[in-house]
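User: quick one, fold this
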Amino acid sequence: MSQNRQEARDRLRAENDYQVNLKAELEVRTLNEKLDLPIHQQWAHLLEIQQVQTEMIRDMVARREV
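Assistant:
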């Protein structure tokens, strides 16, 4: 009897641990997505800057050739 009660408590504890770990994993994923968003926006902005710089260099080279 005592062993059955202990097994039942162990199962409940294991289920609770699983639920807590699952929730923690979902929270970590959400935080990672929130952190990734500014990084992606920053890359897009850096790409725009690079394109402007490339155009400026082409203009400078074209003026030299004239």
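User: anything notable?
Assistant: The helical segments are 2-65.
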